């Protein structure tokens, strides 16, 4: 079996797609414990993406000069993403789950499937104090399941990655009501989430 690798080039992306890919990577790596100190920083990439987005907009109605500025901004963004891909490769340790969590695409032949379906059979059960068992039906083509949870009334989701379709989440705060959701990650960037379930923790 070949070792999983991420795609480290971005020439295949059209101008409008590159920014979407950059944003997906930024979102995936933000607060990602697998990649604590990205090089270059996510702030640098965000700034480069903002410059590129602005230049792309100007190029739609501008002349040759605006197009040249857009091309230059694209080159800068691509260069930063390539550097970041090297960092991800090093710290990903050839672990498919970790590599997928970065938002980068896996090389052809790894999880070569389309957009994965909405999870079914999703359930949450508060088992013991401060714990909850979460499970769903297995999804063909899923390289990793991304479980997310937060206390009701808050905005930020905490992410837990697993190759298994059933996990035990802990520690959770007893007496609080939590929201849970899950999505399966494969080769496609698009992800479809389950319905959100709520449960009080023992």
Automatic annotation (TrEMBL):
InterPro entries: FN3_dom, FN3_sf, Ig-like_fold. It comes from the Bacteria. This is Fibronectin type III domain-containing protein. It comes from Pedobacter boryungensis.
């Amino acid at each position: 079996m070949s070792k999983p690798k991420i795609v480290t080039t971005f020439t295949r992306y059209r101008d409008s797609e590159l920014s979407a890919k950059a944003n997906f990577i930024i979102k995936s790596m933000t607060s990602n414990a697998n990649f604590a100190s990205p090089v270059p920083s996510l702030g640098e990439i965000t700034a480069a993406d903002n410059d590129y987005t602005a230049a792309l907009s100007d190029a739609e109605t501008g002349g040759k000069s605006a197009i040249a500025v857009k091309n230059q901004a694209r080159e800068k963004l691509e260069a930063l993403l390539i550097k970041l891909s090297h960092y991800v490769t090093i710290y990903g340790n050839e672990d498919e789950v970790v590599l997928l969590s970065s938002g980068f695409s896996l090389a052809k032949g790894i999880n070569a499937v389309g957009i994965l379906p909405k999870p079914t059979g999703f359930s949450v059960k508060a088992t013991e104090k401060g714990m909850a068992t979460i499970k769903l039906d297995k999804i063909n083509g899923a390289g990793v399941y991304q479980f997310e949870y937060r206390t009701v009334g808050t905005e930020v989701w905490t992410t837990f990655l697993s190759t298994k379709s059933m996990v035990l989440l802990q520690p959770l705060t007893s007496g609080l009501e939590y929201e849970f959701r899950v999505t399966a990650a494969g080769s496609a960037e698009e992800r479809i989430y389950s319905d959100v379930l709520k449960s009080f923790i023992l």
